[in-house]
Task: structure prediction
Amino acid sequence: MPRLLLIEDNQHIQRIFRERLQREGFQVATADDGEQGLQRAQELHPDLILLDIMLPKLDGFQVLKHLREDAALASIPVFMLTNRGTSNDVQLARALGALHFFTKGSSALHDVVWQIRHDCGFKKALICTRNAEAAAPITGALEHPRLLCSVVTALADTIGTAERGSPDVIVLDARPPATNASTALQQLKSTSATKSQPVIVIHDAGQPFNHADALVDSARITTDLRPAVMKLLGLDEVEAAAESNAESVTASA
Result:
């Protein structure tokens, strides 16, 4: 799961972005001022940083400058999020190495997430299942530093969520008591906005899903789902292993 550090002093905005980003599949840490943001970046080494400009103690430009001067943090992608959107602010952010500049109030959360995915090369899996408990083994099997897992718990909402979220792969959980998974699959494959999105169906033996791009037996989620998704999305297992080793070293330090 990609780790995102949100440095934002406005608690209302921080809460809105944290909740939305978590739903999108990010592991979100927060900081309330520039100094705390730098400290958290040093502690966590996040995969990306979403950084406000107008912050207590150190402003966003100062934070970005410190990040770029620290060899251990210099390569972390940084996206600016601010009420200040003058051309000078944008130019300075770019000069200091920010990848993108979002203006509060005019940048929709959907667009922010899409831009982050695009610039950082993250893939997204939309998991359609009946509840959070059923989703847990699926998201657990797909844990990867470059893969976002978003969950929808009503098959009837699958089409709309897939259209808005533009996932790279859809994992459709057809295990009983799901009763309309076949209909959802047919709709996905016949709707113009979603028909090109690959669908992997988790099913019990004997359940026919002729239009699925891949099938995974429900008894083999922990062994067969991950290789199918990794191959489909071109994700590197070596990268996942390196991430796991780095976390183990950090935990033991």
Remarks:
- The radius of gyration is 20 Å.
- The domain at 123-238 is CATH 3.40.50.2300 (Rossmann fold).
- Strands lie at 3-7, 27-31, 48-51, 78-82, 100-103, 123-128, 147-152, 169-173, 199-203, 214-217.
- The CA atoms of residues 33 and 56 lie 5 Å apart.
